[in-house]
Amino acid sequence: MERPCGLLTHPKEPVPLKSISVTLSISEFVAGVSATLNYENKEKVPLEVFFVFPMDDDSAVYSFEAMVDGKKIVAELQEKNEARTNYEDAVSQGHQAFLLEEDDSSRDVFCCNLGNLPPGSKATLALKYVQELPLDADGALRYVLPAVLNPRYPLSGGAAGSGLTGKTPMAPGEHLPYTLSLEATITSQLGIDRVQCNCPLSATEYLGDRTSAQVSLAEGHKFDRDVELLIHYREVHAPSVAVELGKPAAKPVSLFFSGGLMGDPSAMVSFYPNIPEDQSPITCGEFVFLMDCSGSMGCPMSNQDKSQLRIEAAKETLIWLLKSLPIGCYFNIYEFGSSYEAFFQNSVKYTQDTMEEALRRVKLMQADLWGTEILAPLKNIYSAASIPGHPLQLFVFTDGEVDDTFSVIREVKSNRLRHRCFSFGIGEGASTSLIKGIARVSGGTAEFITGSERMQSKALRALKHSLQPVVEDVSLSWNLPPGLAAKMLSPEPTVIFRGQRLIMYAQLTGKMPPAEATGEVCLKYALQGKSFENKVIFSLQPKSDANFTIHRLAAKSFLQTKDMGVTDTPANDKKDVLKVSLECGVISSHTAFIAVNKDLNKPVQGPLVRRDIPRPVLCGSSWIPVLAGGDDHLVQLISLQNADGSWCLNEGLAVVLGVSLEEILAALPLKGADTSGWATVLAVLWLHGNRADVKCEWELLERKAVAWLHSHAGAHTHALVKAAIDFLNSSVDPAVFAP
User: Fold this and answer.
1) What is the pLDDT of residues 229-247, one digit of tens each?
2) d(Cα 378, Cα 178) in Å, to the nearest integer?
């Protein structure tokens, strides 16, 4: 198959990107990444090469270097407009120039322009960044290397340096003209239990009583998916504080940072509070589900054989969520793309009738609404009057293809006092900037669903969070020696969810005490009238780090709260963003890295030709939706449950149970009794006996069912349970039906 190269003038000529290598260093729950891109211009004319590199929104890019024909050029971080001007001037004068900047509409996509790459020239670009690693529900740390050039956005057009191009050519993974290698070193005093990857690895080597590990990606990796590493530590719940030594020669850059952020020691505080789960979730709330129905939702969840389509997985998840809502709440569903439509004019009370109407509409959903415009439906949702006693809980499902991430985040932030937003990135390549940003500014949570992961598990976990009583009076206090103070660089948490890890950064100012001195930090919060606290005592002897990992992550945390994009950051905040970005060397939307090589013996001759590097095709048209193995009966059973938690006795239930309707009726222990109680007991037993592996997905459904049983079957519940266990020959403990 001939490789489609789109904008290339000579499609059969090789593109100059030859290989990508990534070196990864993971220490505890922080990663340092060095990505090296190798180019070679084999054409007879000079090239200006354009490259896109997506990464996690929490990444802090702090170094950019180029090696051109053996000469090293170190990039300088400058104010963005100044850097763009210098880049254009250098290119116009025939110099080699390199410009690295965030895309104007999102902080997790980086654009690299190479100006005037001479014929026969070789160039190596090295990009370094640090990032926090998110924690999965099972305690595993997750690192993701996005599929390079992943087509996540309808990218903004324009001249070089003014945003990403929407015309970057596409190519199937097996025909991409470049290769990827990845090597990772993992160290932790917590002990490494195991390392997993969604792509083939070379042999994993564990060292030092499993306190370190070496892993590498097997040769022949295709760019058909993100590379995901899961690191399971033996202990992850212990709170910790790490103190990092600053740069003694750093000069103050603002009144906010008296000694300069890089000059003082920085502290990274990690808490994993053990918040008890309330077994009686609240029953109030307005639940609004915002579902992406753009064309890209018709893509598969992954490029694995028979992978389910994103829209199908999302529809199944919506069914789960609708069935799990509590009686007495209000809800609505919006589908959006280039346009949007609400299922109901206003949020409606959750009843059997409204639930059935919503389910009918959900089943008709298709990925046919073209582009992705989320801002308009968001504004419509926020314009509606609040329902007294029912706080708004917003659930957003999207694969992340939006035009202006900053505008969406700003809109959510402006309404943060009246709602929480729980966001879900669907499929490989979802925008971490969008998904994490809208959750962060509203006090919600963010989840990413890729590959073979079950969307239902993560969505139901978020619903449980929204139904739990609010954790109140959250505060962080420091107990430090006299003369030493802590200035918070991260916003202090206002909401804490069960199973959530908190990472915060602080600047330590004043006189550092002797080496043996210690400090203490305490996290306090209240839940349903009870007070809780987590304390950790830590050494005040700072450790040195040549990469200043904690300082740069602290700067990134500060920038995330202040930087709202090139055009919308307030003037005072822009001033602080520029100062912190330039001092710490961490890129922002207002700064860019530029490197210029002026040491050529002669100007580059010939017309300058633009080349956009092909990106992999991750969205095919030959995929068909399929249910994960064994899920068809589970989906059917869930779809049969009534809004109040009960099941009706009918042929659909009989099919799931694998017996005839006549047999079920014949086994009814109380002749003439309401068959709904009998059907509900049988359904709950089937869930426990057949799908206990995904209990987290139907736990709320079961709670509704058991509550309904005790309010309707009453004293007959015990007899129904005993007869159902005998009828199904079940080994399930009858205690699951305890009120």
Assistant:
1) 999 998 877 788 999 999 8
2) 40
